[in-house]
Amino acid sequence: MLMSNTQSLEAKRIPSAVDWVASRSLAGAGRRVEDVFEQLGIPVSFEKDGEICAESEPAEYIYKVVSGTVRSTKILDDGRRQIGAFYMAGDIFGLEPGDDYHFSAEAVTHAEVLAVKRSTAFAWASQDGDFARLLWNVTAQHLQRAQDHILLLGRKTALERVATFILEMADRLAKEGALELPMMRQDIADYLGLTIETVSRTMTHLESTHAISLNSSRQIALRSRSGLNRVNAC
Amino acid sequence: MLMSNTQSLEAKRIPSAVDWVASRSLAGAGRRVEDVFEQLGIPVSFEKDGEICAESEPAEYIYKVVSGTVRSTKILDDGRRQIGAFYMAGDIFGLEPGDDYHFSAEAVTHAEVLAVKRSTAFAWASQDGDFARLLWNVTAQHLQRAQDHILLLGRKTALERVATFILEMADRLAKEGALELPMMRQDIADYLGLTIETVSRTMTHLESTHAISLNSSRQIALRSRSGLNRVNAC
DNA sequence: CGGGACGTTGAACCAAATCAAAACAGGTGG
DNA sequence: CCACCTGTTTTGATTTGGTTCAACGTCCCG
Predict the structure, then answer these.
(1) Are A161 and A121 part of one and the same domain?
(2) How would residue B233 be classed by pLDDT, with cut points 50, 70 and 90?
(3) Is B131 part of the contact surface with chain A (CB cutoff 8 Å)?
(4) Less CB within 10 Å around the terminal CB: N or C of chain A?
(5) Are residues B9 and B90 in the same domain?
């Protein structure tokens, strides 16, 4: 869909970025490592549902989310879909040990990302231990989240899954007690390994037990964090 | 249980390893990066069900499996257990971005591991880009496996889960078509997010459809890899 | 040969899925 | 401003895959 967007990257800016890193890689020590993406990244924006990268395509870029929300997905032959993670502002994704992406990534909302060529990032990391350490750290944190999610999918009930989800989202994007979910019910269902109906019913149930209140389907207020924590086994 | 074993590590050998890495870290360039664990690691062995590390304890060591099989587990308050991964000979585990382990690890069978102090490994990695790259690679591969497992737990049926499991184990430890499972049914169930009964029934079903044959409960022969691949959605 | 751990099988049950329909929320255009 | 359309969410009725509960086999190992 937004393939043209992705492909145009190459023609537009990348070659100069490669030259840049080659010429400055040893001068990078003074640079703040957190800002490497900001300095080397090409800003790209994706409309809602735009495809940022596709499973089993060459993993040419690493991405950092500037704004918006991104989902990583895997799809089975018959269309069943699983969302592995949501990435929000500040999150880095697309780091692959092999040559190809191992999942697809799509914009949940309109999203702005910074794209850095994999080769550029690796070249930089080989010169700058702090940056290498940052990349490892990002990967290891993703792994921890994945392990938590494995526990959720393998052993938690629908009620526990939804409670965990709401608490996770509250931590990541709450402004004083209320949160605006960027994704629709189908995305939540595919993240939690449930159906939309079960997600909807469970939300309603949490509202009826005064754990949350649903301003609109996307806007949730935490009524009782302790209630959510209680229902969320841990 | 084997806490004494783990704790004795410190007294026994670690301090000398720290000195060693300090004195030789810059001389390490000629060393084969794959062998760093063999050179720096302290061999430790664990009996069946021995605890190698525990969730939320300080992540003091990184481990490499020499022989045997290890499971990583997370447990909910009420005892529900999820196995995140199995580690076999050659696998590295225990790499944590934070200061504490994020899961427990136990020996499924009698297991020999090499333990390297986290601080030692990180010190080495900061001097040796190849070793840093190796550690990142290990982490990123674990992440990919975790993502595949998330898909399995979120969206696959019991039959598909068991088929996927058998194919995975066949890839990792098959000798000409037959494989000897190191773990019991409860471990398989906790890995696949099922119950022992369902795992057992599903194995029986796969045998009755001539996809596998069960020599004993632990010894499986792949009768029809294509049959398994067919049942295993992907 | 007897006991305990592990594995299989059977029957009843239940949490979540599926199937179906109604309610809701934005847009768009008259 | 309202009527209409389309995509999304909620609610209801029914079904089902997998769990639970219960019993029986099997395999070691002393």
Answers:
(1) no
(2) confident
(3) no
(4) N
(5) yes
Burial-class residue A87 by CB neighbours within 10 Å (0-12, 13-18, 19+): buried
B201 nearest nucleotide via C1' and CA: C8
Residues B136 and B167 in one domain: no
Size of interface A-B (CB pairs under 8 A): 120
Q: Round to whole Å and give the CA distance between A78 and B53.
A: 40
A173 CA to C27 C1' in angstroms comes to: 28
Condensed to tens digits (0 to 9), the pLDDT of residues B9-35 reads 433 333 333 444 444 444 444 568 888
Q: Which domain holds residue A173?
A: 156-231
What does the pLDDT look like over B56-87, one tens digit per residue? 999 999 999 999 999 999 999 999 999 999 99
- pTM metric for this prediction: 0.91
CB A143 within 8 A of CB B139: yes
> pLDDT by residue (tens digit) across B207-228?
999 999 999 999 999 999 999 9
Rounded (5°) CA angle A118-A37-A69:
90
Task: Report yes or no on A136 lying in a domain.
Answer: no
Question: Which CATH number is A212's domain given?
Answer: 1.10.10.10
Q: Which residue is listed with tokens 């900061």? A: B126
User: Which residues of chain A fall below pLDDT 70?
Assistant: 1-31
Residues A125 and A11 in one domain: yes
CATH number at residue B71: 2.60.120.10
Mutate to test the interface with B, among A136, A164, A232 (most CBs of B within 10 A): A136
Q: Are B223 and B183 in the same domain?
A: yes
Nearest to residue B94, comparing CAs of B128, B58, B127?
Answer: B58
Whether B134 contacts chain A with CB within 8 A: no
Looking at the structure of chain B, the number of domains it has is 2
CA distances from A174 to A10, A189, A190, A231, B198 (A): 36, 20, 22, 20, 40
Of all residues in chain A, the one with the smallest CA distance to B138 is: A97
Same domain, A101 and A50: yes
**C-alpha dist (Å) from residue A199 to A42, A76, A148, A184, A190:** 37, 21, 19, 11, 10
Q: Does B139 touch chain A (CB under 8 A)?
A: yes
- What is residue B31's predicted lDDT score, i.e. its pLDDT? 64
Q: For the segment A76-85, what is each residue's pLDDT rounded down to a tens digit?
A: 999 999 999 9
Mutation to test the B interface, candidates A101, A137, A139, A148, most B Cβ within 10 Å: A139
